[in-house]
Each structure stands twice: as C-alpha cells, then as structure tokens.
Amino acid sequence: MTKYTSNKLNFSISLAIVILAMMSSCVSNKKIAYFQDIQTVNQAKLDNATKFTEPIIQPDDILSINIFTLNPQSGAIVNQAASNTVLGGGANTAVAAQQVSGFLVDRNGDVELSLIGKVKVEGLTTYQARELIREKAAVVYKEPNVQLRFANFKVSVLGEVNAPSAYTLPNEKVTILDALSLAGDLTIYGRRENVLIVRDNNGKKEFARLDLNSSEIFNSPYYYLRQNDVVYVEPNKRKVAATNSAQVQTISVLASVLSVIIVAITSFR
Fold it and tell me: At the top level of CATH, which class does the domain 38-52+153-239 belong to?
C-alpha cells in the first residue's frame, strides 16, 4: 500500500466519522410552534369547533356529593362520605396514592346515601345526577340544595413532557392543552404533530392522534379530555439520537482506533 493510498484511506475514515457524528446530532427545528396555520384558517372553521359535552358517570367513579338543608345537622348525616384511595399527583410531583373523600359508584352504577338510600347515577351527567338526588332528598328534607361533581376526575400525561404524572382535576371541562400545561408543556424532544390519546369508552379502548401544529385540533372530538384519559407524547428523532449518544461515541472511538491501527500497519510497509 502506497503512502498516497494510506492517506486517502485515512481521509475517508475520518470523513465517515465526521458524517456519522453530524447525522447523530442534526435534527430539523421545524414543527416546534403550536397552531402554525392559525393565521390562514377561516374564522368560521374555528367557530364550528368541537363543543364541550359533559362526561357520563360510570362505575368506579368517585362523586363529591353535598346536600345542604335548612337544618345543617341533618344535612351533615347524609354528607358523611367514605375516603377512597386513588392515584394522582401534581406539577413536579411523582404519582402517589391519595385519599379522596366521596361516594363510590358501585359496579351496579349506584351510590348509597344515608337516609336516602341507593341512587342510580350510571349513565347520567353530573347535572342530571344532581337533579335526581335533589328530588329524592326532597322526600326527606325540606328544600334541599345539592352540589355534585367528580372527586377523582383524573388524566395521565406521559412521555416527553416536563412533569409526567397522573393529575386529579377539580373540574370536568379539561382540554388537551390544559393537561399539557399541568405537565409543564412538551420538552424540546416531544413530537407535537403526533400526540396520542388513549380513552376507555364503556370497557373498550379508543385511540386518537392529535397534531398540535394544526388548528384542526379544535375540531377533534378528543380535544376535550374524559375521565381516565391518557395523553402520551412520543420522543422525536433528536431524543432517540441523544439516547443513543453513548453508542455513537463508542462507534467513533472504535473508528478512531481502527484508523490508528491502519496507519500503524501501513507505516511498516
């Protein structure tokens, strides 16, 4: 092997190492901003966006129910709810078991209230359940006032967000943007154009993909989240490259060692 051939070989190996390193770190910065087409979207299209519909009560939901009467002491009897353990968390906190006070909807779809008895609430909205309980409470109490809401309205946000967790929320009108805000927004490695929603609908799993770069998200039936929805943000190619950086470094070192060996061999010829 001539010296010219050796130098050419060494140059080729070095060039391959440089290209390999560049490929491992080179990532497009496109599709970072949300709703990039918002300036070109017809206003009428946004006006016809998906409307919020109240979630339906299902077995294993926990309801916060308070009945206010003219006699506070009598109302306190029916308001004695049991504590239930649920998974939940908040910003910058890990998922942990929490005690939630409320009335558990049993497998038959009923809640059991003191002095009132069992009330069938499965399949109802919180407004419908409140009115039904108010009617039944009126038999026992004079002019009762009922407040009812979900005590364990929970969504889970996983993947490339700054604070992944299961979040227990105080209200039931929650959008995908609300959930991502609670989770500290996506990291720079999150795929904004392919966010996965996993939903349990009457025992069957539903899956949907949302593109945060497009205003079409406002027209999606998954824009408003439901109880126990899971939001998953996939990593982009840059995160994959960062995860494999140790492997890339190992390949670079091996290539360098190989180059040195070739140089050493050719120098003795």
Answer: alpha beta
Q: How confident is the model at residue 246 (pLDDT cuts 50, 70, 90)?
A: low
* CATH placement of domain 62-150: 3.30.1950.10
Q: Give the end-to-end CA distance of the chain in Å, rounded to a whole number.
A: 7
Q: Which tokens go with 164?
A: 């992944």
pLDDT digits (tens, 9 = 90+) for 55-81: 999 998 999 998 888 776 666 656 665
- Evaluate whether 78 touches 137 at the Cβ level (below 8 Å): yes
Q: Which helix (H) or strand (E) holds 15?
A: helix 3-25
Would the pLDDT of 179 be above 70? yes
**% of the chain surpassing 70 pLDDT:** 62
Mean pLDDT of the chain, nearest integer: 78
- Which of 208, 205, 157, 151 shows the shortest CA–CA distance to 178? 157
- Residue, of 52 and 29, whose pLDDT is higher: 52
Q: How far apart are CA 36 and CA 253, in angstroms?
A: 42
Amino acid of residue 152: N
Beta strands in the chain, from DSSP E residues, in sequence order: 62-68, 82-88, 96-104, 110-113, 117-120, 145-150, 153-159, 165-169, 195-201, 204-210, 230-233
The alpha carbon of 191 is separated from its chain's Cα centroid by a whole number of angstroms, namely 13
Q: Which DSSP symbol is given to 51?
A: P
Q: Where are the domains of the chain?
A: 3-27+244-267, 38-52+153-239, 62-150
DSSP 231-258: EEE-B-HHHHHHHTHHHHHHHHHHHHHH
CA distance 101 to 152: 9
Q: Which residue has the higher pLDDT, 207 or 102?
A: 207
Between the alpha carbon of residue 66 and those of residues 59, 71, 248, the distances in Å are 19, 14, 60
